[in-house]
Amino acid sequence: MADYLVIVESPAKAKTIERYLGKKYEVKASMGHVRDLPKSQMGVDESDNYKPKYITIRGKGEILKELRKSAKKAKKIYLAADPDREGEAIAWHLAHALNVDEDSDCRVVFNEITKDAIKESFKHPRSIDHDLVDAQQARRILDRLVGYNISPLLWKKVKKGLSAGRVQSVALKMIIDREKEIENFKPEEYWSIEAAFEKDKEVFEGAFYGIDGKKQELKSNEDVKVIEEKLKGKTFNVEKVNKRERKRNPAKPFITSSLQQEAARKLNFRARKTMMIAQQLYEGIDLGRGAGGITGLITYMRTDSTRISDTAKDEAKEFIEQKYGKEYLGTQQAAKNKKGAQDAHEAIRPTSVMRDPRSLKEVLSNDQYRLYKLVWERFVASQMAPAIMDTMTVHLLNNGVEFRATGSKIKFNGFMKVYVEGTDDNKKVEDKLLPDLEEGVEVTAQEITPNQHFTQPPPRYTEARLVRAMEELGIGRPSTYAPTLDTIQRRGYASIDNKRFIPTELGTIVSESVEEYFPEVIDVDFTRKMEENLDSVEEGDTEWVTVIDDFYKDFEKRLKVAEEEMEKIEIKDEPAGIDCEKCGHEMVYKMGRYGTFLACSNFPECRNTKAILKEIGVDCPKCKEGNIVERKSKKRRIFYGCDRFPDCDFVSWDKPIARPCPKCDSLLVEKKVKKAVQVQCTNCEYKEVEQT
Description:
By secondary structure, this protein is of the alpha+beta class.
């Protein structure tokens, strides 16, 4: 019989930790929270200092029964939920449910699930941190007060099933504001003049800079003609050559937001998928008996700190020196976190840098491998030496008209040998070499080409850009980014097109209604200040009741005004231009959980619905009668099928194309292979590759 009971959140984690601790310990999983506010009512007593009413979550009764049974037999109970506010609140709820003295040394926290980290953490148990619990409780109650007061109002005035939330509403407004910027954007004309210069048969590129040493903008074709008329021939004199050495420092190790952004850029992962796979890597992967069995591969993935432990730094130093040489060792200073960072635990890093990605490829799924590789490379690079670039700027003159040519060369690749941070525009760091030019020499312009341009509106938010903007504005915290973006899409407030958020009519109506009557809920500065107040509660500087009371006094007044003055909004369905084949009434566009669909306007008398099908111009290869259309699965993944379904069950994840295989006359499809689109036959070995 075990002497000690340890309670964690997930079964995968329980299995791993039980093996590390030995026979005296029984490790059980609570499966997350066991108590919460009731779903069917507010659950907060505004008249009694916002006292919450907690109940056992539906479906958790049996789990609690098992935990209580084990608790009665144990000499001591350890609560080992995740090392953040949410985890502290789970431990506190468990303490209440199991009659554990929360002031005893019952709480154990660890940042990584490895044998050494687990054993060390059990040497230093502590009591439950009430400030952390209060901060989480304040967030939960605030969100309940906002959501359970505004949402019913939206149901009554706009449409059933709508919701509003503190962080969600601000994120939605950011998407809508960006769309308004794009709609109101007025492009401005501007020009550039590019030139291809030649020196000793070497060609390099330059661009117009200005006149007589002063930078000049070209706003019209007339401005370009003035420059062209001023030029005397095509011979330019090298007036000045600037050469310098520039250092480029590595990116810091991942925090939650930067991991989500980089996974979106490099792996094409949605925020939710990134966090799901990171959770798997954190909780443990079975490496096999000889390699240590189930082992956590990365540290805790909900963090806003870039701090790294001395042990991890030393191990990285040893690895880098052995693998790449002493010259690649970095001399990083202590990490400086952004203002407001909780710094509760380390940055996201591999639990052991010695487990390089290639050695784990056989035991990881493809997605797990790709994300682990990203985390591993980012961490290793962060501990390496800066890259050194040789840069060169050449000033070229012709009758006072100045062109400039710039070039750079990687002199020492440093951290870039392992990893280079991605960018939203996917620009790569490449050598752009210039010939060895000296002041006073002459070069010839082979071509001088004017180009017309127009300024572009700001881009719509991708998930990565929105997470970055939310982080920069101080909206939300690491644990809230992915759920917030997911909720906005599930509610039909914004759709994703080409990986970018586009607000729907419904989302715009909801946002404008909330903004009119509850401006503080949707105000960026107010939301940021609220996050700072919650951080202050966590630090023990502010009482959680005070934070809620300061907000709710004004909010309650606005709620009464909204209930009286908010007008009922009728959202008219957009006609689809086709008739229902069942009853003859007009079909209309409707917004559902998985996007827009067609429904009969004669609802509820007629309940006919149809998916919106996008034809791709390919005949069905199976039935020869139907057309291939683009569809979406429940997980929003695009696939292709016959429009005669269910009479014809042809489906394909790969996009069919409208020409037959030249070898066997069978169906050709497009497959994405790394950074290329590969056309291949579904019947024979025929392949062709088109770069993208």
